[in-house]
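Recap from last week: sequence in, structure out.
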Amino acid sequence: MKTLYIVRHAKSSWEYEGIKDIDRPLKKRGINDAYLMSKILNEKVPRPDVFLSSSANRALHTGIVFCSTFGYPLANLKINKSLYSFSDGYLIKTIRALDDAFDSAIVFSHNHGINDFVNDFGNKNIENVPTCGIVGIRFKIDHWKNIKKGNTFLTEFPKHYKNK
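Predicted structure tokens:
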């Protein structure tokens, strides 16, 4: 059995002129949501075996917050440039290439690839994974390269926890 947590990066800022898309930082709301959602996930699930992030600043910052909350060493956070893509093709390739020694993984990436992935590989239709949204999918497999339709067992979105 393999367990995958997909996290869409937290809310990023568009207010800085002249910076490349890959360098866009998180907004204050995004930072707050990353801390909120990492705490919620940490209370619900065991620490994933491996943390992977897109090389984009906003995804990497989200991943760093989750590492901190879970007590995962930052030196072990794997940064994958190919996850800085808005296609699920690179996400699928990255997951299929995971070391089988890892039974669980958490990936910080981008929309639209995330939406396509969770709907293609999970069994619950999700119209839109919002910023800092988390989707957990379990696969009845022994090897990551064999992922196919799995069981969507977790959907956690920031809006579920605000104004409570």
